[in-house]
């Protein structure tokens, strides 16, 4: 099987023996343990695993939003102890503010950082147009569908052109068709901008379709069981999902989870 | 006025219910003829008001002044207190816990103490109104400030937002619906506070006027005051309701009500 570091570029993000144990009233809860993972610059890596295995925890650790219990995380060769520079995050819930228009929501992160929003207005409008929201910039989030809202939250994450993008099951709450659309749009934007992308999902097919590599996480405390390099030509169209190679990757990953007793075969 | 404040259908319902109740009341009094000392007819109440309208309106003005002053102070202090409470674990564990505990005791019982401390002027009335109104405002605002989605706060941290920016742009707007809920409860409490203040000591206001009428077994006089309190208490509530609609067109409770008020 392909090994962990098939990617040859410089590592953008390195996780070394990363562990996180939450304190809770019922005692310590180990969420992730012993995680080693490198993300090459411009690489698209997905993490799949059953719910509760620590995927969100891992993402928050890389985002510098939770402190580490063990190991270290380096971004651009520097050890992080807080959100690193040049970071964009998309969560499963779009968390748009209801009293702001879509455009104002996209500009929020810049505004919060205390930077003048005028300089980013053009870019924000361009991103919205890019994601098919060109005529919705002055609408409010509650006037939009779930798919459009999530597009807006991706625009918000991309606004300051971060080099590292973290996405936590961003399409998990969407219907299958909207999800296909957004998968295509994400693949396209990634192809153009080549950001380092850590993408969390519980859909094996989604992970295979989007990624350069797919990392499988086992039950809590989560650690990475295996990493599969996805050697499918890019740009990928939805038709690639009917190819034998695609099915082979999906079957391989599913089989692996089945061996762990996580899914039934 | 009511029409302007309420959605058309709501205004119609309120007016209908009021009119029917008044008609039933008037008819009941004419048919069963209870002693006027017990229950006067609505027409008699209006008549009594029209004999000395200036006196009643002056007393009403004083009571409403105390109410609004106490309420305004309660809003300002309440919001500041709520912000302080959510910004500090220590304040949360001390002041907030204390407030929640004190909230269940009957605070009007403290009114005489305020008279001892502050005399019989306007201060104790404003203070009692403030004390009653501030509880729901602080408690609801704290809940509102805490209701922000944790992922929104994560995004703010990733953007390196200052605590002040997070408060002004995220937490406070997010807490506004709760603040309004607290204010709607608080405004009626403030009115209760002002009346209680006038009951325990004073020479002005509708509370005082009720005591005077009681001393003379003037049931009509008491009813005039009660009706005025009912009408203006309701109006104060609807003014807040209207303000809420202006401030929060985006809130779930207001959507689809955009045509209201115009
Ligand atoms: N803040 C927290 N405090 C205590 N336990 C937590 C916290 N966040 C997550 N956990 C626990 O850590 C484990 C992993 O959670 P999470 O990272 O959300 O998993 P996933 O995203 O894969 O569903 C779960 O058992 C969860 O209950
Ligand atoms: Mg999760």
UniProtKB/TrEMBL annotation, chain A:
<dbReference type="InterPro" id="IPR003439">
    <property type="entry name" value="ABC_transporter-like_ATP-bd"/>
</dbReference>
<dbReference type="InterPro" id="IPR003593">
    <property type="entry name" value="AAA+_ATPase"/>
</dbReference>
<dbReference type="Pfam" id="PF00005">
    <property type="entry name" value="ABC_tran"/>
</dbReference>
<feature type="domain" description="ABC transporter">
    <location>
        <begin position="13"/>
        <end position="244"/>
    </location>
</feature>
<dbReference type="GO" id="GO:0005524">
    <property type="term" value="F:ATP binding"/>
</dbReference>
<protein>
    <submittedName>
        <fullName>ABC transporter ATP-binding protein</fullName>
    </submittedName>
</protein>
<dbReference type="InterPro" id="IPR050166">
    <property type="entry name" value="ABC_transporter_ATP-bind"/>
</dbReference>
<dbReference type="InterPro" id="IPR027417">
    <property type="entry name" value="P-loop_NTPase"/>
</dbReference>
<dbReference type="InterPro" id="IPR017871">
    <property type="entry name" value="ABC_transporter-like_CS"/>
</dbReference>
<comment type="similarity">
    <text>Belongs to the ABC transporter superfamily.</text>
</comment>
<keyword id="KW-0813">Transport</keyword>
<keyword id="KW-0067">ATP-binding</keyword>
<keyword id="KW-0547">Nucleotide-binding</keyword>
<dbReference type="GO" id="GO:0016887">
    <property type="term" value="F:ATP hydrolysis activity"/>
</dbReference>
UniProtKB/TrEMBL annotation, chain B:
<keyword id="KW-0812">Transmembrane</keyword>
<keyword id="KW-0813">Transport</keyword>
<feature type="transmembrane region" description="Helical">
    <location>
        <begin position="220"/>
        <end position="240"/>
    </location>
</feature>
<comment type="similarity">
    <text>Belongs to the binding-protein-dependent transport system permease family.</text>
</comment>
<dbReference type="GO" id="GO:0005886">
    <property type="term" value="C:plasma membrane"/>
</dbReference>
<keyword id="KW-0472">Membrane</keyword>
<dbReference type="Pfam" id="PF00528">
    <property type="entry name" value="BPD_transp_1"/>
</dbReference>
<feature type="transmembrane region" description="Helical">
    <location>
        <begin position="126"/>
        <end position="145"/>
    </location>
</feature>
<protein>
    <submittedName>
        <fullName>ABC transporter permease</fullName>
    </submittedName>
</protein>
<feature type="transmembrane region" description="Helical">
    <location>
        <begin position="59"/>
        <end position="86"/>
    </location>
</feature>
<keyword id="KW-1133">Transmembrane helix</keyword>
<dbReference type="InterPro" id="IPR000515">
    <property type="entry name" value="MetI-like"/>
</dbReference>
<feature type="domain" description="ABC transmembrane type-1">
    <location>
        <begin position="60"/>
        <end position="241"/>
    </location>
</feature>
<dbReference type="InterPro" id="IPR035906">
    <property type="entry name" value="MetI-like_sf"/>
</dbReference>
<feature type="transmembrane region" description="Helical">
    <location>
        <begin position="179"/>
        <end position="200"/>
    </location>
</feature>
<dbReference type="GO" id="GO:0055085">
    <property type="term" value="P:transmembrane transport"/>
</dbReference>
<feature type="transmembrane region" description="Helical">
    <location>
        <begin position="98"/>
        <end position="120"/>
    </location>
</feature>
<keyword id="KW-1003">Cell membrane</keyword>
């Amino acid at each position: 099987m392909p090994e962990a570091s098939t990617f040859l570029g410089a590592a953008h993000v390195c996780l070394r023996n990363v562990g996180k144990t939450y304190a809770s009233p019922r005692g310590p809860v180990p969420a992730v343990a012993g995680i080693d993972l490198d993300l090459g610059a411009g690489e698209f890596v997905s993490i799949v695993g059953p719910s509760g295995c620590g995927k969100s925890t891992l993402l928050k650790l890389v985002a510098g939003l939770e402190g580490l219990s063990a190991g270290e995380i380096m971004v651009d060769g520097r050890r992080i102890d807080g959100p690193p520079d040049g970071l964009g995050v998309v969560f499963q819930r779009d968390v748009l503010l209801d009293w702001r228009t879509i455009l104002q929501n996209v500009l929020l992160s810049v505004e919060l950082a205390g930077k003048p929003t005028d300089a980013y207005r053009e870019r924000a409008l361009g991103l919205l147009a890019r994601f098919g929201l060109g005529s919705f910039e002055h609408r409010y989030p509650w006037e939009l569908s779930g798919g459009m809202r999530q597009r807006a939250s991706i625009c918000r994450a991309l606004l300051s052109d971060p080099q590292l993008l973290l996405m936590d099951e961003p399409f998990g709450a969407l219907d299958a068709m909207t999800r296909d659309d957004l998968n295509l749009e994400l693949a396209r934007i990634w192809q153009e901008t080549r950001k380092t992308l850590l993408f969390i999902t519980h859909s094996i097919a989604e992970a295979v379709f989007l990624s350069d590599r797919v990392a499988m996480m086992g039950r809590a405390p989560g650690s990475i069981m295996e990493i599969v390099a996805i050697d499918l030509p890019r740009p990928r169209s939805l038709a690639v999902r009917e190819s034998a190679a695609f099915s082979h990757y999906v079957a391989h990953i599913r089989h692996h989870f089945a061996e762990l007793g996580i899914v039934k075969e | 006025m009511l029409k302007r404040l309420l959605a058309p259908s709501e205004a119609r319902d309120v007016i209908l219910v009021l009119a029917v109740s008044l008609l039933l009341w008037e008819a009941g009094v004419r048919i069963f003829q209870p002693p006027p000392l017990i229950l006067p007819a609505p027409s008699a109440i209006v008549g009594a008001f029209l004999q000395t309208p200036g006196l009643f309106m002056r007393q009403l003005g004083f009571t409403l002044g105390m109410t609004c002053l106490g309420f305004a102070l309660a809003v300002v202090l309440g919001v500041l207190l709520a912000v302080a409470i959510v910004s500090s674990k220590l304040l949360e564990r001390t002041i907030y816990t204390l407030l929640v505990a004190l909230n269940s005791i009957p605070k009007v019982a403290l009114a005489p103490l305020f008279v001892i401390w502050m005399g019989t002027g306007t201060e104790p009335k404003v203070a009692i109104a403030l004390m009653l109104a501030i509880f729901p405002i602080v408690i609801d605002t704290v809940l509102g400030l805490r209701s922000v989605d944790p992922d929104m706060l994560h995004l703010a941290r990733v953007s390196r937002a200052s605590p002040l920016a997070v408060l002004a742009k995220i937490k406070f707007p997010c807490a506004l619906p709760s603040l309004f809920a607290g204010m709607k409860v608080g405004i009626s409490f403030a009115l209760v506070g002002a009346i209680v203040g006038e009951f325990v000591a004073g020479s002005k206001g509708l509370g005082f006027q009720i005591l005077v009428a009681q001393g003379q077994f003037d049931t009509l006089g008491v009813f005039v005051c009660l009706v005025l309190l009912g009408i203006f208490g309701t109006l104060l509530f609807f003014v807040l309701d209207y303000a809420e609609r202006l401030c929060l067109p985006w809130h779930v409770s207001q959507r689809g009500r955009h045509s209201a008020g115009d």
